Amino acid sequence: MFGFSRHKKAVVKKKTPKELFIEIFTRFLTLTVAAFIVAFALECILLPNKVIDGGVIGISMMVNYVTGANLGLVIFLLNLPFIFLAWTNLGKMFVLQTFYSVSMLALATNVFSNLHNSVILDELLLVVIFGGITLGIGVGLILRNSASLDGTEILSIKLSKKFSFMTIGEFLMGINLLIYTASAFVFDLKQALYSILTYFVASKAIDAVIDGFNSSKSVRIVSEYYKDIGKAIMKELDVSVTYMKARGGYSGEEKVLTYCVVSRLEMAKVKAIVKNIDPKAFLVIEAVHEVEGVRVNNRK
Predict the structure, then answer these.
(1) Nearest-angstrom CA–CA distance, 269 and 282
(2) How far is the C-alpha of 15 from the C-alpha of 196, rounded, in Å?
(3) Is the Cα dihedral 280, 146, 263, 196 positive or negative?
(4) Starting at the edge strand that comes first in sequence, how are the strands of the sheet with 216-222 ordered?
(5) Distance between CA 86 and CA 94 in Å, rounded?
(6) Nearest-CA neighbor of 131 among 61, 33, 208, 39?
(7) Residue among 212, 229, 234 at smallest CA distance from 7
(8) CB neighbours of residue 265 within 10 Å
(9) In this predicted structure, which of 4-8, 112-116, 136-140, 181-185 has the lowest mean pLDDT?
(10) Cα distance between residue 230 and residue 242, in whole Å
(11) Is the distance from CB of 63 to CB of 46 less than 8 angstroms?
(12) How many CB atoms lie within 10 A of CB 148?
């Protein structure tokens, strides 16, 4: 049978303690800086001008405006249930990094709270553009480092696995539609429309940081250790993989290509799995705009 009889056993290269420390330190330092960038956008640009973000942060901003409750504390408390929800679906490391990022955001909002009323602008388009870009950069850095600040995205992943008739993006869009509708009553229709525009600008900024703001990514992997990579992806992410026959253009050798579709939150984990098993593996990652299929929309 083609290819499969030539399978090699992978030798997983372990990182030295120094390499592991540098990697973890750099990641958490980036998460810290990103959390402060997001906090600056919220406290110093958006909230003083009654413009909100989507998701849990948007709900927290409305709660803060109506009740005067501490913004950071509200963000932290509202995210907690979703962080626990992610424990079985997205892995312990993702949960740890998300918990750290949310905690740092809660701290950072209090650091910038004294500047809360110092940057009220007459031109709301400047708020939308600069607030959205700043927010998007911070959120993008956090997503790029396998963490999240938005519990509604985690909820959307969970719901899409249970109800296959809607994708992650569709659930997320529906949740945010309800949030922005509520903001029209808390503030007014004009501010709600500016908030929607800010969300759009922020999403484009996230695009630039993490190279794609899509609910799903398709991944093609060429490696001699395709079985080890495939098994690891299926085991750690509960994602089905497909093995395809291929032939090298230069070498003419028969190869096996591993193909899978994952959410953008799972993308960093896929890269880590492949790099750990075969650092020389060839990966092709593409944005997926529409996905249908039980194993994609309803992974259990």
Answers:
(1) 16
(2) 44
(3) negative
(4) 242-247, 254-263, 216-222, 282-288
(5) 8
(6) 39
(7) 229
(8) 22
(9) 4-8
(10) 8
(11) no
(12) 26
Select from 39, 64, 48, 46 the least CA-distant residue to 116. Answer: 48
Structure tokens at 125: 């388009």
Contact 168, 160 (CB under 8 A): yes
Q: Identify how many contiguous H helices and E strands the chain contains and give both numbers.
A: 11, 4
What gap in Å lies between CA 227 and CA 214, rounded to an integer?
27
pLDDT, tens digit, for every residue of 6-54? 555 666 667 788 878 888 899 999 999 999 999 999 988 888 888 888 8
> Which residues on adjacent β-strands are paired with residue 220?
259, 284
Whether 4 shows a pLDDT value over 80: the answer reads: no
Tell how strand 216-222 and strand 254-263 pair up.
Answer: antiparallel
- Write out the E strands in 223-277: 242-247, 254-263
248: Cα within 13 Å, side-chain hemisphere: 11
Does residue 160 surpass a pLDDT of 80?
no
pLDDT in tens, 186-228: 888 988 999 999 988 888 888 778 654 445 788 999 988 889 9
Query: What residue type is assigned to position 2 of the chain?
Result: F
- The verdict on pTM exceeding 0.85 is no
